[in-house]
From TrEMBL:
Pfam families: GAF (PF01590), GGDEF (PF00990), PAS_3 (PF08447). This is Diguanylate cyclase. The lineage of its organism: Bacteria, Pseudomonadati, Thermodesulfobacteriota, Desulfovibrionia, Desulfovibrionales. GO terms for molecular function: catalytic activity. SUPFAM superfamilies: GAF domain-like, Nucleotide cyclase, PYP-like sensor domain (PAS domain). InterPro entries: DGC-Regulatory_Protein, GAF, GAF-like_dom_sf, GGDEF_dom, Nucleotide_cyclase, PAC, PAS, PAS-assoc_C. Residues 255-308 form the PAC domain. Residues 340-472 form the GGDEF domain. It comes from Pseudodesulfovibrio senegalensis. It comes from the Bacteria. Residues 23-162 form the Phytochrome chromophore attachment site domain.
């Protein structure tokens, strides 16, 4: 039998092995062994690309067949997670050839004196034939045949048959991916409430969960876009952002399309994450946008909870320092643009430490909550009450003149002074000091505004506490 016939027979046996189960990686050893014995080489191996960039490459020596154990490189540490950079010109030239789908037929003695020649000689290689493995249009790795006994020069017929073996390997890897995706999606469907969706640009149809959605075609031939049919299921506030997101993804196509929307289900609105990828034809025109929609109600509840925690003080439930900073900048800009008044109260408890030391921190927490209730009764809906420190609070008063702000401060101060918390061990009373400042020309930043209010608060403390002091 001719060498080509022997190779074809090996190819058939390897194809039979790869056709069983998922093919890759379980049954690839049979293909490598058949190719190795048919060609008489010392070693058949596979490199898998782990990380590819413009200037570097990391690939791993994932499997091999050897004619003898002495040819094995599987236990050589330098072969695993092997990295090469563009500075290694000889090897980088080969990498560029592999990216273009070209094979390399090398006799090591013919190579110039360089790193690649020394590297291969260190492995005992006299000749080598390598093929890039392309999977779904992307360079996945390398199939290589090393001969450590001969300076073998390959015939065109042999290379053609081996290319067919590489194609079988590529198909096996792709089939394995599809099987893995199918298993993953089956698991996903079991553990999540999800459905598949697909929009066919050519046929102008939408499928949900494998069922075509009615596009509203009439007997006269007029039809509503199936996108509009689908959008009718979405919350009105989500329709335009969803369309804009789809168009932006089609224009840019970066990564995977992801968008959160609310859709009507059994009379209520349900949050879902729409995930999809775009397929184009040879001319770059959109052909299909398809993916899955996941029920994310639980995630949305958690996000809302986290967002609330990020904005509010956990003890009192009012705005925290971060929210205060944001709101103060907002109202300063608004007052600057509109030319309106804006006042700020900084409030600090007098001798709060004594309350904690005497009654305990639980009573101290109760005092803070009671104070917040008093402030809420004295403030308008547009006013902003925030806890900006342990026992330090701030109140933003949009549109309030200096006189109006002082009146608000005095009303809160008097309500606190008149309050007594009745406990089994006795009554708890407390007072507060307040610094008040109204925006003027020098308050061009939030820090400057807060600084003047803080100075007024310091004066209130210095003047004997339990008072309101107007700042400059």
């Amino acid at each position: 039998m001719s060498q080509t016939g022997i190779l074809l027979q090996a190819l058939a046996k390897g194809a039979e092995a790869l056709s069983h189960g998922s093919g890759w990686p379980e049954n690839v050893d049979t293909l490598l062994a058949e190719l190795g014995r048919a060609t008489g080489v010392s070693r058949v191996w596979i490199f898998q690309n782990m990380e590819v960039s413009e200037n570097s490459l990391i690939h791993d020596y994932v499997t091999e067949w050897t004619a003898s154990p002495r040819y094995s490189l599987g236990d050589v540490p330098s072969m695993h997670m092997f990295q090469v950079d563009a500075e290694n010109r000889e090897y980088w030239k080969i990498i560029q050839e592999r990216k273009r789908g070209e094979h390399q037929d090398l006799v090591i003695a013919d190579l110039p004196d360089c790193w690649l020649r020394a590297f291969l000689q260190e492995q005992g290689v006299l000749s080598m034939l390598t093929f890039p493995v392309m999977v779904d249009g992307q360079w996945w790795g390398v199939l290589g045949l090393d001969d450590c006994e001969r300076e073998k020069r390959w015939e065109e017929e042999e290379i053609s048959v081996l290319r067919a073996a590489v194609c079988m390997l590529s198909n096996s890897i792709l089939r394995s991916r599809l099987h893995a995706h199918a298993r993953q999606f089956a698991i996903l469907q079991r553990i999540t409430d999800s459905l598949t969706w697909e929009y066919d640009f050519i046929r102008n149809r939408i499928w949900l969960g494998g069922h075509s959605v009615n596009t509203g075609r009439t007997a006269t031939g007029n039809s509503h876009s199936p996108v509009r049919t689908l959008l009718h299921m979405f919350h009105p506030e989500d329709r335009r952002p969803f369309l804009q997101g789809v168009q932006q993804y089609i224009d840019n196509e970066q990564g995977t399309f992801r968008h959160d929307i609310r859709f009507r289900r059994k009379g209520s609105w349900v949050w879902a994450e729409v995930i999809g990828t775009l397929e184009r034809d040879d001319k770059g025109r959109p052909v299909q946008l398809a993916g899955i929609a996941l029920d994310i109600r639980r995630r949305k509840r958690e996000e809302m909870h986290l967002a609330r925690e990020a904005r509010l003080d956990p003890l009192t439930g009012i705005s925290n320092r971060r929210t205060f900073d944001h709101m103060l900048e907002h109202h300063l800009n608004r007052a600057e643009d509109a030319g309106g008044d804006l006042s700020l109260l900084l409030i600090d408890f007098d001798r709060f430490k004594q309350i904690n030391d005497t009654w305990g921190h639980s009573v101290g927490d109760m005092v803070l909550k009671k104070f917040v209730n008093i402030c809420s009764d004295c403030l308008r809906s547009d006013d902003v009450l925030a806890r900006i420190g342990g026992e330090e609070f701030a109140i933003i008063l949009p549109g309030a003149t200096s006189r109006a702000a002082i009146r608000v401060g005095e009303r809160i101060r008097l309500a606190v002074e008149e309050l007594n918390l009745l406990l089994e061990a006795g009554a708890v009373s407390f007072t507060i000091s307040i610094g008040c400042v109204t925006k003027n020309k020098k308050h061009d930043t939030p820090d400057a505004f807060v600084l003047d209010a803080d100075k007024a608060l310091y004066k209130a403390k210095h003047n004997g506490r339990n008072c309101v002091v107007k700042g400059d």
